[in-house]
Amino acid sequence: MQIVILNDAIEVAAYGADIFTAQLNRNARSILGLATGSTPVALYQALIERNQAGDVSFKEATSFNLDEYLGLDGSHPQSYRHFMNSQLFDHIDINKAHTYVPPGDAKNPVAACHEYEEKIAEKGGIDIQLLGIGRNGHIGFNEPSSGLTSRTRVKTLTKATIDDNARFFKPDEYQPHLSITMGIGTILDAKKVVLLATGENKAEAIQAMIEGPLTAACPASALQMHRDAVIVIDKAAASKL
Ligand code: GLP
């Protein structure tokens, strides 16, 4: 793992945007792995500005998102498809037909998981995968105890993750407890992985990922096995290292 410690969230987003810009400028047909959550929002904003300034193009790129709530279709405001459209895709020159998010409304979710894996393979695999990290060390929705070689599948969310993400839902709004997520094995197959984390509330998870043992108890620790994983964090997230 390469660990990059920067001053604040703004520097983390700019650093992440530089990596994605360089990747796309090297290979316009890159296969991008994308993430949701609050952490990547500033990076997406930076990419939108660079795209609109003509510094980077997504015209020939393809994207695969990590995960989606099972039970929400893409038009639902809390779905990750909706998040990606509103935070990134609607504002850049990507062909939306080439953006893939696991289908939260799949009639047969198990089959949909296999199809998602097949689609990634058909496109030649993910070149660069963006990740955030949950406070319990989850990546995508691979909660603690997830198999380290797991593939895209249906996962039950832990109470900790449901509570952490409750802030995005209105008090009386239905919040799914199930998801479809790329597996840890799927993530490890990406040629490059970039994990961003900011803020003191991520410091424990960051310490466990970097300094702790390789263990399913901290799914992000699986990145210790990756040949090209870059961990970009601010001083607060690095405070327990
Ligand atoms: C969700 C997503 C993860 C994300 C995590 C942290 O559970 N499935 O991909 O990394 O939240 O989100 P945030 O960046 O908002 O802290």
From TrEMBL:
SUPFAM superfamilies: NagB/RpiA/CoA transferase-like. Residues 11-229 form the Glucosamine/galactosamine-6-phosphate isomerase domain. The active site is at residues 67, 136, 138, 143. It catalyses: alpha-D-glucosamine 6-phosphate + H2O = beta-D-fructose 6-phosphate + NH4(+). It comes from the Bacteria. GO terms for biological process: carbohydrate metabolic process; glucosamine catabolic process; N-acetylglucosamine catabolic process; N-acetylneuraminate catabolic process. Gene3D superfamilies: 3.40.50.1360. Pathway: Amino-sugar metabolism; N-acetylneuraminate degradation; D-fructose 6-phosphate from N-acetylneuraminate: step 5/5. Keywords: Allosteric enzyme, Carbohydrate metabolism, Hydrolase. Allosterically activated by N-acetylglucosamine 6-phosphate (GlcNAc6P). The record marks 146, 153, 155-156 as: Part of the allosteric site. GO terms for molecular function: glucosamine-6-phosphate deaminase activity; identical protein binding. Belongs to the glucosamine/galactosamine-6-phosphate isomerase family. NagB subfamily. Catalyzes the reversible isomerization-deamination of glucosamine 6-phosphate (GlcN6P) to form fructose 6-phosphate (Fru6P) and ammonium ion. Homohexamer. This is Glucosamine-6-phosphate deaminase. It comes from Pseudoalteromonas citrea. The gene is nagB.
